[in-house]
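User: Sequence for DUF2905 domain-containing protein below. Tokens please.
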Amino acid sequence: MPSMPKLLMAAGAVLFLVGLIWMLVGKSIPLGRLPGDIAIEKENVRFYFPIVTCILISVVLSAVMYLVRLFMK
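Assistant: Structure tokens for DUF2905 domain-containing protein:
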């Protein structure tokens, strides 16, 4: 089987597992409400930027992609 279909099937399986885990334990994982996320609330304005959450997701996705590249060789 060519490598692209394998990669797509693996990505689909990983996304399925992440979605399942997120659905089951999503309430206990405070993604979007981590310390360091910027939240400013005024009278008529609410600004929210989850900077720490973005960094955490980026690190996790980088590690996953590194492992995928490592095992696809």
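The beta strands are 38-41, 46-49.
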